[in-house]
Amino acid sequence: MPIHDEDMMRTTDFLIIGGGVIGMMTAWQLAEAGHHVTLIERGECGREASWAGGGIVSPLYPWRYSEPVSRLSHWAEGYYPALAKRLADETGIDPEYRQMGLLYLGVKGESQAQAWSQRMGKPLERVGADVLYVKEPYLADGFVEGLWMPTLGSIRNPRLCRALRARLLSLDQVELREGVEVQALRCTRGRLLGVDTSHGTFGADRTILCGGAWTGQILTTVGIDLPVRPVKGQMMLFKTPPMKSRMLVERVVLMNGRYLIPRADGRLLIGSTLEEAGFDKTITENARNALLKSALDMVPALADCEIERQWAGLRPGAPDGVPFIGPAPGIDNLFINAGHYRNGLVLAPAATRLLVDQLLDRLPIVDPEPYRLPDTRSADRSSATLVGAG
């Protein structure tokens, strides 16, 4: 029930702000470790960037990322098949993990890709037109070669979000509060005392901020200038016709930074744009035309398919795409997990496990140092109170 008395503060072991995949996976792990967790979300869990993405369980061009991202990605990719099965078994909601591989078309810097493949032990091979058109016969004419990553998987992220939410609702140790907007963080003398919201004040021994694209905005008002900003991405969904022996596209196909992602029911995603538009999620005709052109350049038959939907989401951009995971500087009971940019869903199992390892004093899965937050506090705001940060 909502808390109407702002002078009354309910406390818990952990308070999580933000109900995307990062927040929900964190809550699940902490609850399974025996802790009481309250998760607050201003909307509905899993309806922001976690819902809006494509669900490829790998960075698009993984060899272009730094080692910190590669370490988390490698761990998470190996974890996803078992995670999807467990959620399906425990909630009855199948996240539809599909390991059908990825075809790269028109790749530049193949030597870098092959070096990464050998270093990471990740299968990646050059294939000719004969292999390309056997795997995907409806590709546009004229492709003579590409790269084939047979182990790549994808997950249907809206279903993943639904399954995670259902799992949390089934746990007695978790209090899930949606429609709760943060209004102020009470912080003094280097300690977070409570979180004022539209539904009263919440307190916790430790608070975890998983606010996605809004994280930097929130932290600025308590004197922490974390370089996390919203980066808009627009996507579209095609409905492809039923076919006798196969779907129109069965594998993830990637060309010039744009990708096609098939779903088990024949639907097909095309994504995505990269736009510096602040917190604006308006869909545009220019994006529609650009996405359609990219789709047709890969699979011309999509010209005859219905476009069911176009949408936009806000990624939490960070320098070099390396997320910030760890304690907030100067506030001893506030922790951050944010800035995953285009790889929030990719990295989520590993990024959340890394933070939970630190919270519970366990041996971390990877060295936490590359993800630590820089100390960017300003002297005149180090004891500020956050206001209006919904």
UniProtKB/TrEMBL annotation:
<keyword id="KW-0560">Oxidoreductase</keyword>
<feature type="domain" description="FAD dependent oxidoreductase">
    <location>
        <begin position="13"/>
        <end position="357"/>
    </location>
</feature>
<feature type="region of interest" description="Disordered">
    <location>
        <begin position="371"/>
        <end position="390"/>
    </location>
</feature>
<dbReference type="InterPro" id="IPR012727">
    <property type="entry name" value="Gly_oxidase_ThiO"/>
</dbReference>
<protein>
    <submittedName>
        <fullName>Glycine oxidase ThiO</fullName>
        <ecNumber>1.4.3.19</ecNumber>
    </submittedName>
</protein>
<feature type="compositionally biased region" description="Basic and acidic residues">
    <location>
        <begin position="371"/>
        <end position="380"/>
    </location>
</feature>
<comment type="pathway">
    <text>Cofactor biosynthesis; thiamine diphosphate biosynthesis.</text>
</comment>
<dbReference type="InterPro" id="IPR036188">
    <property type="entry name" value="FAD/NAD-bd_sf"/>
</dbReference>
<dbReference type="GO" id="GO:0043799">
    <property type="term" value="F:glycine oxidase activity"/>
</dbReference>
<dbReference type="Pfam" id="PF01266">
    <property type="entry name" value="DAO"/>
</dbReference>
<dbReference type="InterPro" id="IPR006076">
    <property type="entry name" value="FAD-dep_OxRdtase"/>
</dbReference>
<keyword id="KW-0784">Thiamine biosynthesis</keyword>
<feature type="compositionally biased region" description="Polar residues">
    <location>
        <begin position="381"/>
        <end position="390"/>
    </location>
</feature>
